[in-house]
C-alpha cells in the first residue's frame, strides 16, 4: 500500500501492509546539536522495533541530511520516521523555500555529495518542494539498498551554498572583485565546504570556539553564486580556457583569463563577510592543531577569501576596488599554514639529495623537504636555499594559480590526477627564465597520517627561455 507523507504532499513509497512498528515526529532546533539529537531518536526507535541491523546505515544517512539542513536552511527542522517490517522511512523538513542548486563538483568529491551518499546506501530517497512552506527530504533504509541513478538525484537536489531568502533585502550594493581568480576561488570553495562541515561537527561537542556559520554561509554564497553564473556566461560565449597547459590531466574547470566579478551585497552586509573570515579562521586554527581530518588550507586559499571579504567590507565603507594581487607574490614562496616540522617521519632524504638526476620532495603543506644537487644547479639555486620554501618557488607565475588550485583540490577530495602520469611542464629558474622538463610525481606515506611527494624532473631543453607564458595556461 502507499502512505500519505506526514510532512510532504502525496504518497511516500510502498511500505507493505499494516501500521509502523514504531513512529515518531519531532521538532528540532537548527543548531549544532541537531544532528546528534536526530541520530539518538532514530537509534532509540530502531532498538525499540528490534531493527538493530539498520542503525549504522540510518544514522549515517540521517546525519548527512540533517547536517545539510542545519548548515544551509537556517530554519527550524521537523523530523518524522516510521519503522516498518520491511524498511525504515524518514522525512526531514525545513522551512527555507530555496531548493538547493546542483554543484559543479565531480562525483568523486568528498564534500558536496550529500544526495549521492544517500542514494548509494539508502533504498530510496528524494526531495519535494513545498513552495513557500519549505521542502522535505526523504529516504528509506532496508536490508538491500536500491541501485539508484546518482546523476538524476543530483540534478534534482544537491546541497550548495545557498542564499537564505530571509537574508535578502531590496537595499543592495554592487561590489566589484577585479581580476577575480576563478580557478582559485572554486578550489577554495571546496575547501571551505569541507572545513566548515568539520567545524560544525566539532562545535557540537566542544565549547570555546566562536563561529557564525549561517552568516559565513550566506557571505560565501553571494560570491560563489555570482562567480558560477559569470563563468557559465563566459563559457557560453567561448571566452574560457584551461587553467593548465593542454595535455595536463587536471580536471580544473575552464575559466576566463581575466574576470572582473560584480556581486550584489546587502548594504548592511559587511558583518556577513567579517563572519566569513572569523569562522574560517577559527576552522583553520583547529585544522592546524590537528583537530580535523582535513588539512589546513594552502596560503593562497586563505589569501583569496581574505581579499574578497576585505574588498566587500572596504567598498561598503566607500573605498575603491583593488584587484586580486595574484599568486606571484614572494610571501607565498615562504608562508606555510601549518605548524608541523619540515622533516617527515621515517623518511630518508638521501633518496632525493643523493640522486644523480633531478628530484625534489615536498610535503602536503607544499613545502620543499629536499632537492637533488643536479636539479638545484639547473635552476640556479643552492639546495640548502630551497629547503623550507614552498614548491611555488620553482613554478612559473602563469601556472601557479592552476597548481595551487589543483593541489588544494587534491587535499580536499583525495582525488589524484597527476600521480604517476608523465608530464612535460616548464620549471622556473632563479633568474626568472624557464626550462621545459619531464615530470613524474609519486606519493609516499612515511607515517603519522602525513604524505610525501617526490617529483623526478629531467630538463628536456637545457637552454632557458625568458618567455613566461604557456599556451593554454
Instruction: Please count the beta strands (DSSP E, at least 2 residues each).
Output: 16
Q: In order across it, which strands form the biggest sheet? A: 3-4-5-7-6
Number of domains: 3
Structural class per helix/strand content? alpha+beta
Shape: globular
Uncertain segments of ≥5 residues (pLDDT<50)?
Answer: 9-16, 101-113, 145-169, 468-473
Helical stretch tally: 12
Write down the overall mean pLDDT. 82
Radius of gyration, in Å, reads 25 Å
- What string, H for helix and E for strand, traces the elements in order? EEEHHEEHEEHEHHEEEHHHEEHHHEEE
What does the main sheet amount to? 5 strands, antiparallel
Q: How far do the termini sit from each other?
A: 59 Å
In helices, the fraction of residues equals 25-40%
Percent of residues in β-strands: 15-25%
Provide structural commentary.
The chain folds into 3 domains: 2-156, Histidine kinase-like ATPase, C-terminal domain (Heat Shock Protein 90, 2-Layer Sandwich), CATH 3.30.565; 165-326, no CATH class; 350-459, PAS domain (Beta-Lactamase, 2-Layer Sandwich). The chain is 34% helix and 20% strand. The chain has 12 helices and 16 strands. Helix 2 packs antiparallel against helix 3 and helix 5 (182-203) crosses helix 7. It is globular, with a radius of gyration of 25 Å. The termini are far apart.
Amino acid at each position: 500500500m502507499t502512505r500519505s507523507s506526514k510532512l510532504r504532499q502525496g504518497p511516500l513509497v510502498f511500505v507493505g501492509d499494516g501500521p509502523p512498528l514504531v513512529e515518531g515526529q519531532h521538532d528540532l532546533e537548527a543548531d549544532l546539536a541537531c544532528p546528534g539529537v536526530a541520530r539518538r531518536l532514530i537509534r532509540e526507535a530502531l532498538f525499540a522495533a528490534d531493527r538493530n541491523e539498520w542503525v549504522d546505515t540510518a544514522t549515517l544517512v540521517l546525519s548527512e541530511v540533517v547536517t545539510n539542513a542545519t548548515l544551509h536552511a537556517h530554519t527550524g527542522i521537523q523530523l518524522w520516521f516510521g519503522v516498518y517490517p520491511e524498511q525504515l522511512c524518514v522525512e526531514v523538513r525545513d522551512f527555507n523555500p530555496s531548493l538547493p542548486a546542483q554543484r559543479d563538483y565531480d562525483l568523486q568529491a568528498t564534500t558536496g555529495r550529500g544526495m549521492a551518499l544517500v542514494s548509494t546506501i539508502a533504498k530510496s530517497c528524494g526531495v519535494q518542494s513545498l513552495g513557500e512552506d519549505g521542502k522535505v527530504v526523504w529516504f528509506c533504509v532496508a536490508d538491500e539498498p536500491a541501485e539508484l541513478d546518482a546523476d538524476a538525484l543530483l540534478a534534482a537536489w544537491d546541497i550548495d551554498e545557498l542564499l537564505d531568502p530571509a537574508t535578502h533585502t531590496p537595499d543592495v550594493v554592487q561590489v566589484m572583485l577585479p581580476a577575480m581568480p576563478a580557478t582559485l576561488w572554486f578550489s577554495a570553495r571546496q575547501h571551505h565546504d569541507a572545513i566548515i562541515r568539520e567545524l560544525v561537527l566539532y562545535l557540537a561537542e566542544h565549547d570555546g570556539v566562536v563561529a557564525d556559520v549561517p552568516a559565513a554561509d550566506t557571505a560565501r554564497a553571494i560570491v560563489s553564486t555570482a562567480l558560477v553564473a559569470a563563468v557559465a556566461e563566459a563559457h557560453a560565449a567561448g571566452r574560457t580556457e584551461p587553467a593548465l597547459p593542454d595535455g595536463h590531466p587536471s580536471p580544473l574547470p575552464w575559466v576566463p583569463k581575466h574576470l572582473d566579478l560584480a556581486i550584489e551585497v546587502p548594504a548592511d552586509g559587511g558583518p556577513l563577510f567579517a563572519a566569513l573570515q572569523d569562522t574560517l579562521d577559527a576552522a583553520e586554527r583547529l585544522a592546524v592543531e590537528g583537530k580535523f581530518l582535513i588539512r589546513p588550507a594552502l596560503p593562497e586559499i586563505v589569501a583569496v577569501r581574505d581579499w574578497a571579504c576585505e574588498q566587500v567590507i572596504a567598498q561598503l565603507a566607500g573605498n575603491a576596488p583593488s584587484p586580486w594581487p595574484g599568486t606571484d607574490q614572494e610571501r607565498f614562496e615562504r608562508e606555510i599554514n601549518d605548524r608541523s616540522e619540515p622533516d617527515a617521519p621515517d623518511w630518508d632524504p638521501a633518496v632525493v639529495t643523493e640522486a644523480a638526476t633531478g628530484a625534489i620532495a615536498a610535503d602536503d603543506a607544499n613545502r620543499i623537504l629536499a632537492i637533488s644537487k643536479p636539479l638545484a644547479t639547473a635552476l640556479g639555486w643552492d639546495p640548502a636555499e630551497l629547503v623550507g620554501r614552498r614548491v611555488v618557488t620553482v613554478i612559473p607565475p602563469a601556472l601557479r594559480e592552476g597548481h595551487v588550485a589543483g593541489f588544494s583540490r587534491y587535499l580536499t577530495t583525495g582525488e589524484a590526477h597527476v600521480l604517476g602520469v608523465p608530464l612535460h611542464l616548464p620549471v622556473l629558474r632563479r633568474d626568472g627564465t624557464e626550462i621545459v622538463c619531464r615530470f613524474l610525481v609519486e606519493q609516499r606515506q612515511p607515517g603519522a597520517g602525513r604524505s610525501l611527494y617526490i617529483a623526478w624532473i629531467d630538463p628536456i631543453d637545457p637552454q632557458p627561455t625568458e618567455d613566461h607564458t604557456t599556451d593554454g595556461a
